[in-house]
């Protein structure tokens, strides 16, 4: 009996959320990653790489959504070795219209990052993720985003930041 009650309450909550929802959102972006951490193996480190992300989410109102996705933060190299970084993340995204077709956006969330080091092996850590950007609406469904995002990951015995500057597309169903 309890499980039926829980199922009915859950269904009612989901129906209530869906009645106020704007819809499903998907997107992706490509950009430049900048590693801000210790040198790899004490050697001078190339601190930039190509990064990308793919995400899906749900827009609850025109100003509030939840996005979750995968980000490849790139591979950072030194003469002593290299580190490859990626993360799974979930963000709350706020959007504010600023001009005809343009919106400012801000995001705050959590990232579960994985670092693969040729010197220290592999390690996973969780950290805060934040970002800001601009979006231009091409039409009611398709937008172009320019963003800055910071992934703060505590793994391999240190805390490092990786900033990603990207351009991408956002599609609403």
Describe the protein in words.
The protein has 173 residues and is mainly beta. Helix content is 10%, strand content 73%. The protein has one helix and nine strands; from the N terminus they run H-E-E-E-E-E-E-E-E-E. The chain has an eight-stranded antiparallel barrel with strand order 1-3-4-5-6-7-8-9. The longest helix is centred in the first third of the chain and has 18 residues.
Write the layout of secondary structure elements.
Elements: H1 2-19, E1 23-36, E2 45-46, E3 48-61, E4 64-78, E5 81-99, E6 102-117, E7 121-137, E8 142-155, E9 158-172
Summary, kept brief:
With 173 residues, the protein is mainly beta. It is built from 1 helix and 9 strands.
